[in-house]
Amino acid sequence: MYDGFQFTSFASLGEEVKKRTILVNGPFQVALDDRWRIGYVAAEKDLVAAMNNIQSQSTSNPVSFCDKASIEALNGPQDFQKGWVAEFDRRAPLHHRAAQQDAGRVVPAPAGAFYVFPNFSGCYGKEDTRGER
C-alpha cells in the first residue's frame, strides 16, 4: 500500500461480515510468477465444498512442483517484497499520469498497485477528436 494507506480485510470487520466474505488469491501473484496457475479460496465451508464440486468438473490437478512452490511462497522469506513495493511505488504515478491524459476521463490514483481504473462516464455521448461517436 502507498502513502501510509493501511489495508483492511473485509473479513476482519466482524463475524457476520466474515461469513459473507470470499477470499480468492494465489501465492504466485505475490511471490513468484503469475503464469503458474494455482490458487486458493477461503470462505464458509459449505460454499467452498460447492466450489470444489464445480471446479473438479472443469480443471485437473495442478503440477506437483507448483504445490511445493506454493508452500514455500507462502511460508518462505518475504523480504524481497520491499524492493517490489518500492518499484511499484515509483511506477504508479507514471501510469496514473498517462491514464489521465484524455479529456473527460477521471482516474483515481492507485493505492496499492500500478493498475488504474479509468471512469469514462464523462465521455458518454460525446464525439472524439476525429469526429467519430
Features:
single chain; 39% helix; 133 residues; two-stranded antiparallel ribbon; 5 helices; mainly alpha; 2 domains; extended
What features would you describe in this structure?
The protein has 133 residues and is mainly alpha-helical. It folds into 2 domains: 10-75, no CATH class; 80-123, no CATH class. The protein has 5 helices and 2 strands; from the N terminus they run αβαβααα. The chain has helices at residues 15-19, 27-30, 45-55, 64-75, 80-99; strands at 23-25, 40-42. Strands 1-2 form a two-stranded antiparallel sheet. The longest helix has 20 residues, at 80-99. The chain is extended. The model has no long low-confidence stretch (mean pLDDT 79).
List the helices and strands and how they pair.
Elements: H1 15-19, E1 23-25, H2 27-30, E2 40-42, H3 45-55, H4 64-75, H5 80-99
Gist?
The chain is mostly helical. It contains five helices and two strands. The protein is 39% helix and 5% strand.
Number of helices: 5
Detail the poorly predicted runs. Answer: none
Strand order of the largest sheet: 1-2
- Major sheet attributes: 2 strands, antiparallel
Category by helix and strand content: mainly alpha
